[in-house]
Amino acid sequence: MSKFKTSICWSLILAIFVFAVIVPKELVDGKAISDVANKSIIKSIKVDKDEIIDCYDIYKQPSLNHPLLHNHTVQEKPSMSPKNIKLDNFGTLQLTQTWHKYGTCPKGTIPVRRNIKDFRSKLSRKHPRQKFSHYKMPNTVRSDASRPGHEYAVIWVSGNFLGAQAKINLWNPVVEAPLEISVSQIWITAGENDDRNTIEAGWEVSKYIYGDNQTRFFILWTTDDYNTGCYNLECEGFVHTSSNIAVGCNFTELSTFKGYQKDATFSIHKDQKSGNWWVQVQGIPVGYYPSSLFTQLSKTAKEIDFGGEIYNQRSRERHTTTQMGSGHFPSEGSLGISSYFNYVQVIDENNEAKDPENVKSEVTNPNCYGLKIDDKHKNGYGFFYGGPGYSDNCQ
Ligand SMILES: *[C@@H]1O[C@H](CO)[C@@H](O)[C@H](O)[C@H]1NC(C)=O
Ligand SMILES: *[C@@H]1O[C@H](CO)[C@@H](O)[C@H](O)[C@H]1NC(C)=O
Ligand SMILES: *[C@@H]1O[C@H](CO)[C@@H](O)[C@H](O)[C@H]1NC(C)=O
Ligand SMILES: *[C@@H]1O[C@H](CO)[C@@H](O)[C@H](O)[C@H]1NC(C)=O
Question: What is the pLDDT of residue 166?
Answer without folding.
Answer: 96
